[in-house]
Amino acid sequence: MAFTTHEIESPDPATRVVAADAQMRENLGDIGEKMVLNMGPSHPATHGVLRLILELDGEIITKATPDVGYLHRGDEKIAENMQYNQFVPYTDRLDYLAPLANNVAYALAVEKLMGWELPPRGKAIRVICCETARISAHLLGLGAMALDLGAMTVFLYTFTEREKLYNLFELLTGARFTTSYTRVGGQIRDLPERFIPQLEQFLDGFIPQLNEIDQLLTRNRIFVDRTRDIGVIPRDRAIAYALSGPNLRASGVDHDLRRKHPYLDYEKYDFEVAVGTAGDCYDRYLVRI
Fold first, then answer.
1. 35: phi > 0 → left, psi -120 to 50 → alpha, else beta; which?
2. C or N: which end of the chain has fewer Cβ atoms within 10 Å?
3. Taking a C-beta distance cutoff of 8 angstroms, is the pair 198, 165 a contact?
4. Can you identify the CATH homologous superfamily of domain 75-226?
5. Average pLDDT, the chain
6. CA-to-CA distance for 187 and 180, rounded, in angstroms?
């Protein structure tokens, strides 16, 4: 699939929208040969985060013009008028799929500036927060991807497991989405007495469910045909675009901050880093699962 992007550079959202509309009208000359689709920002698949102007040749996206910035809130400016811990609830909204990890990242930055070091138990609790948040976010990514391709069963499986995680988050923090659990220098409270047994119970049942998802999707002919060699991001372009996490590793870049620049004693944990080769939608799926 031919996939190109063109960024509209302007600090003014209104100017970006006008420029994008003008560009879309310029490309309507050969409308009989292609379709121009305005996707978002108010679209069920985008959740208001961006707008995409897509040029389609059948099912092939020949051009994609992104228009981003719809969730800009000026968090940095807001933080200037707050004490450090007062800003923690704002970090929940940076990525609502993994608020526990957002809390930790912000606290680590402040603690580094202050020269503070957490005790081992505090670090271990934060690792639990980050890794359970990672599982939750990946489950949503897998489920939403499968649903968009018509695999409703996989969507139900992933969201069933996410619901179990949210029950754990609620037990740990008192909330399901906006957790605000981490504080600069530690956590708001210690692990509840029932948390570790319930976490172990979840993990025991999660592996068989993950294997079931793997069997349903990974070698499914329709799923493979609609994801392999689609949306290819080569290694050099992934680096140039400053991609991170599974999207970067799917393009063949073996880079994981937990291993390259360890924090929270991650160097003491034994884990494998999944790295793709093709940089397509299928590899991005494989890296996450």
1. beta
2. N
3. no
4. Cytochrome-c3 Hydrogenase, chain B (1.10.645.10)
5. 87
6. 9
With beta carbons less than 8 A apart as the criterion, state whether 25 and 254 touch: no
Cis preceding linkage at 41, omega within 30 = yes
Distance from the first to the final alpha carbon of the chain: 24
Q: Residues 15-50: pLDDT tens digits?
A: 655 666 666 666 655 555 788 988 878 777 667 788
What pLDDT sits at residue 97? 86
- Give the type of residue at 190: D
CA gap 143, 148 in Å, rounded: 9
CA separation for the pair 103, 38 (Å, rounded): 35
pTM across the whole model: 0.81
Domain extent listing, the chain = 13-68, 75-226
What distance in Å separates the CA atoms of residue 191 and residue 169, rounded to the nearest whole number? 11
